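[job 4471] stage=fold_predict status=RUNNING
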Amino acid sequence: MAYDSSPELTGTEVRSTRERIYGTVFFLCAALSIAVTLAIIGTLLFDALRFFSEVSVIAFLTGTRWSPSINPIEFGVLPLVTGTLAVTFLAAVIAVPIGVSAAVYLSEYASDRTRSILKPALEVLAGIPTVVYGYFALVYITPALEFIGIELSTFNVLSASLMVGIMIIPMVSSLSEDAMSAVPDSLRQAGYGMGATKFEVSTGVVIPAAVSGIFASFILALSRAIGETMIVTVAMGMRARMFAPESIADVPAEIAYIATNSGSTMTAAIINLGLSDLAGGTTAFYSLFAIGLLLFTMTFLMNLTSDIVANRFREEYQ
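[job 4471] inference complete, writing structure tokens
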């Protein structure tokens, strides 16, 4: 009596067809994301080239005055870059040490029950709308800083930077904690076997072993800070200021002046231009896309640096 294998073959064919459909759907999702990215880049390039046909790239990148709608008309982006880097630097001063410390606690000190409560609670910060952060900085942080004796303008870089730093803490802590948790326990046990304390194991064994993931979290968080819009728009103001100390001795005073007064970032300038009454097709209108292209380039280079460093220092364990 012959054995009929057609039901099994039919089932195999059905599974194979289903897997091909799944693969096609996943491919289309990946292709869509790439297509959207390329479309955004193409739009930025196309309209930015219109701007650079009327304003030289050198004048745009090296100019020290941003005034797209008030005479004299100038399109120097350096003041906006200064404001963006100031916010990013001050936010990093807040987020990096606090985020890494929180990651060390969650990874090395907290019990499983405590970690299951604290980590989701910490990540809730990432879900708060950024406009809420901005108004919180304006209404509460600035008066609090003035109460302790710091003289600030109503809109200032310091308050905005503090809130941006608080906003990116969950990104630093969560990604860093994941990197630390991936370190094998055998390395920890080796440290304990040599008489090291938990603190010494955490700082001397775990953090160096997870440095690639930790550094990647820094870069991703700073990329998020560079692109932040609503916090700096609400709490920082719109006046572009150029960081230009006359000598090295003037650097601390210039930093203090920039931090305690209003400023503007590239994202805030884009919002300001987009909501203004500038007519489409003008040089000032196309400057919006030139700023966006520069911002995209800066973020891309930071992410590329993160990948290079992560691959360079990645530790692989069996």
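[job 4471] summary: The beta strands are 66-67, 74-75.
[job 4471] exit 0
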